[in-house]
Design goal:
Layout (H helix, E strand, L loop, with lengths): L4 H39 L12 H4 L3 E8 L4 E7 L3 E12 L4 E10 L10 E10 L23 H8 L5 E8 L19 H30 L1
Parallel strand pairs: 4-6
Antiparallel strand pairs: 1-3, 1-5, 2-3, 3-4, 5-6
Helix pairs in contact: 1-4
Length: about 220
């Protein structure tokens, strides 16, 4: 009987650890779903005027309504859009009625239309404040001299267009420019892999138990 103690102990302890990790991921899943629900609620809230005091921690995704004028010129950020392919996010300066000048993410144009003139002039904009985190270890450095950007780096973009370091991502622009497709903020890009992680840990626990039972059967056969 003592020959079964080690397999049982290793099996139970290992399975308990793996199940605990799975349960932890289930808890993380509930936490992340709560965060995503809060973000979606913020995105869909009623638009507010552009805030005077800026606080990225509390104002990320805040809806805003702007009246003013889209300025000449634009910065182009290389992106890939599902079912659209490669193209550019168009970032233009926007001057509000009270004289503030901010960055406006107007949306997507196909790759071949980078040099196509875009509409400038008076416009009403609905959108969301955003402080994007586009950059990772594989993101190339921006090439402002070629007007090729690989991330929406708000500081350098604000300097290039002489605006406040404040970005509004448009969900609707009136009048619209038919060449630009808005890319509103949403929660789709927020990673939420906790369910897959939980399934992985529970599956490993099941495999661990199966291997433990196989070990015990081997021990039993050896005794015979």
């Amino acid at each position: 009987m003592t020959r079964y103690v080690a397999p049982l102990l290793i099996g139970l302890v290992g399975a308990a650890i793996l199940v605990a990790l799975g349960l932890w991921q289930v808890q993380r899943l509930a936490w992340k779903e709560g965060i995503i629900a809060d973000i979606e609620s913020m995105i869909a809230a009623d638009p507010q005027p552009l805030p005077r005091v800026v606080d990225p921690a509390t104002q990320r995704y805040q809806p805003v309504a702007l009246q003013g004028e889209i300025g000449e010129g634009a910065l182009y950020v290389l992106v890939s859009v599902k079912r659209q392919g490669a193209g550019w996010r168009v970032i233009s300066p926007f001057t509000t009625e009270d004289g503030r000048r901010v960055l406006l993410d107007r949306g997507f144009v196909p790759a071949a239309e980078k040099d196509t003139p875009l509409r400038a002039g008076p416009a009403a904009v609905l959108g969301n404040l955003h402080w994007p985190d586009d950059r990772n270890s594989a993101t190339p450095e921006n090439a402002p001299q070629d007007n090729t950007w690989y991330a929406r780096d708000i500081g350098p973009m604000a300097e290039a267009l002489q605006t406040e370091p404040l970005l509004v991502v448009a969900s609707d622009v009136d009048p619209a420019d038919a060449r630009v497709r808005p890319l509103p903020v949403d929660s789709a890009g927020i990673p939420n892999d906790h369910l897959q992680y939980a399934i992985t840990w529970f599956s490993l626990a099941a495999v661990w138990i199966a291997m433990t039972l196989a070990w015990i059967r081997t021990q039993a056969k050896g005794k015979d």
